[in-house]
Amino acid sequence: MKKMSWLVLTVACASGGLVLSAVAADQARTGASKPSLTVTVTTPQTASLAQKISANGNLAAWQEAVIGAEANGLKITEVRVNVGDRVQGGDVLAVLQADSLRAELAQAEASLAEATASAQEAKAQAERARSLQQQGFFSNAQLSQALAAEASAGARVQSARALVQLQNVRLSQTQVRAPDAGVISARQATVGTVVGAGTELFRLIRQGRIEWRAEVTAAEIGRIQVGAPVQVKAASGQLMQGKVRMVAPSVDAQTRNALVYVDLPAQTGSARAGMYAQGEIALGQSQALTVPQSAVVVRDGFSYVYTVGADQKVSQLKVQTGRQSADRVEVTSGLKADARVVASGGAFLNHGDTVRVVDAPAATPAAK
Q1: SS3 call for 302
Q2: Antiparallel, parallel or unpaired: β 74-79 and 194-195
Q3: N or C: which end of the chain has fewer CB within 10 A?
Q4: Contact 307, 315 (CB under 8 A)
């Protein structure tokens, strides 16, 4: 009996080994074709994307007016504005000492009054000379002298009147006024300083307007049109919308770049002249082949997408990407329009992997 039991156990163990070997072989065969990942696929879509040129540059004053003293040798007695103040055209920015000019004006007015009186006397003398000459009491020579004296007196009146006007102008120059509305960007005027004619006292950003001077390459100049919309982001983070006012007529010989002048709104917020800014110049719309942004995998500095073949195996394709719009990316080369592209999860795949393709989940209707 013991011998028979040993034989049965041996056969059973041998049979069990055969069964286990068969199961292992079956598992090996099924494991070789087991999908490594379940994915959804999509096909590239043609979409209309905005064409833009990215550029860098500086913010600058649209026009900066230099306001100087016109009177010579006068002392500043009052300064009414400071840097950053907004002014209107004609506002008084500074006042110069005017005592001496007022005295000179009074003297000029007195000279005008004297000349006027002399002219009236000369006119009366000329009228009497005409009357007496007609009566034969005055010769023609005497009449000519009287008429010459009248003309000379009239000329002295005109000269005195011009001197009064000049003194009025000089007196008005003791009030330094803003030539236009805007923002004071610099101030050199100090109370007590004696200034000469032409001395700079203030700088004014006219109308408070600033502009963006973008640098673009020579190849991009021809694509930019006057009036094109531009979005500018200042170094302070402020976003501004503007329009191209002018493209520079020449290219810098050193950098081979050209300037594009972009009009921006009046200076508001945190943007200031002199700041560095980045921006995008719109060029219009064009058709592009796009895929979901999640379908693009970046490895070692290159962009790839994964396509699924009829055998459910994936192929890694190197592509060139371009513009982005929302969650879609333009593919400029390396991909066919009818390719089956893995919509997401490509970062977990390798070339030649077998995948299981499932339908994309239906969009959930928006709650009412």
Answers
A1: strand
A2: antiparallel
A3: C
A4: yes
- Is residue 281 domain-resident? no
Q: What is the pTM of this model?
A: 0.61
pLDDT for 362: 44
Sequence-ordered list of residues with C-beta below 8 angstroms from that of 184, at least 6 positions apart, any chain: 81, 82, 83, 84, 85, 86, 87, 93, 202, 203, 204
Q: Strand, helix or coil at 61?
A: strand
Beta carbons of 219 and 258 less than 8 angstroms apart: no
Last residue of a domain, one of 138, 173, 208: 173
Task: Print the domain residue range for 160.
Answer: 98-173
Domain endpoint, select from 127, 152, 173:
173
| Residue 153: CATH number of its domain | 1.10.287
Token pair, residue 300, equals 């070692």
Q: What's the pLDDT band for 12 if we cut at 50, 70, 90?
A: very low
* Amino acid symbol at 162: A
Q: Is residue 333 part of a domain?
A: yes
Q: Are 204 and 87 in contact (CB under 8 A)?
A: yes
24 pLDDT exceeds 90?
no
